[in-house]
Amino acid sequence: MIGKATRIDLLSMKTPQMRAFHLTWMAFFVSFFAWFACAPLMPVLKGEFGLTPNQIANINIAAVAVTILVRLVIGPMCDRFGPRKTYTALLAVGALPVLGVAMAQNYETFLFFRLLIGAVGASFVITQYHTSVMFAPNVVGTANAAAAGWGNAGGGVAQGLMPLLLGAVLFLGVDHTLGWRIALIVPGVLMLIMAAVYWRFTQDSPEGNFSDLRARGIAVSGGKGGGGWASFKSASANYRVWMLFITYGACFGVELFIHNVAATYYVDHFGLSLKSAGLAAASFGLLALFARALGGWLSDKAAQRRGLDARSMLLFVFILGEGLGLLWFAQASSVTLAIVAMLLFGLFTHMACGATYALVPFIDRKALGGVAGIIGAGGNVGAVAAGFLMKGLGDLHQTLTWLGITATLAAVCAIAVRFSAEHKAREQALYDSALGTQP
Known about the structure:
mainly alpha, 18 helices, Growth Hormone, Chain: A
């Protein structure tokens, strides 16, 4: 029987593990691109709809709010139906509000579709679930972080590409009113294409699809009680899940917040053009191309040398670095210092995200979907909290300062994630077994 992959062959798509790896990060890339396609165009949309600062804050909150609920549900759905069916459905259904936002005629309809687009953010949980099922303990942290990081870069690409795409449409003679609508249709079409590709070329696990395995009486890894509520209930009873819920809110929540406000911040506070602000904001997202993978890889290496607890300590260091870097960014007085500080704290933020999900497969293997979903939702809870903080304070500098302080304090939660001797022994046995049975 085919088992989990013990190495990552980046140039190969021959095995089901590597097909899942590549297609899941591609699907996540397209999803993240669609999720944040509106953000760099907000200076244009602000004028189009006559948006007030309060309405813009509502839009930013809406963009990440519904993702909380969908992430909680989507993890157990992976246990129940398998990541292949779940991802295909999310891509196909999620494309509808992405296309719908291009048709919005006023603030209310724009806000409605922006809220629904947030469901696309749940794609992250499926990405992490699928790679967790496909790869062995010695490389699963790297696989999770690399797939998430490369997919996550879709947000950064959207920041830089959407203004250029709008510019290209306007260059063809289309006016602004129609131009931004045409530009926003592109990510919706890409999602529909990706849904078809994912359905055709992936499978749920190394052994096959969950439905086929269950029909043959084979127990499915990662599914407690067939998934669904049982998986969620088991995960929610584990204190480690809630510690990582907080740490992920501190790192991915901040990341989402920065994606939503960065371009507008550089335009309003430093007077940059829309294209320059988009490129500056894009640099933050593009760090995910390597920084998430680096966080996961370092977590795997630390665990090999010092055991499972070393993953938690490394996560603590990353989030502490993020918090301190964010405080520097909040006090930056020039655009140059702001960009340097953003890249520094962004590096720690992305590494912390990678290190968090390098821990996820080891929390509770029998409730993997519930664990991945709850922790993933924590990221969006953090983003929503940041949005309300911004709305309450009404000042981005103060908001960033308080986020930096909060992230620094949240680092303590990473230290609280500890494992019993029995748990460590069980994971070590799985690690030795995977390396002993794989070529």
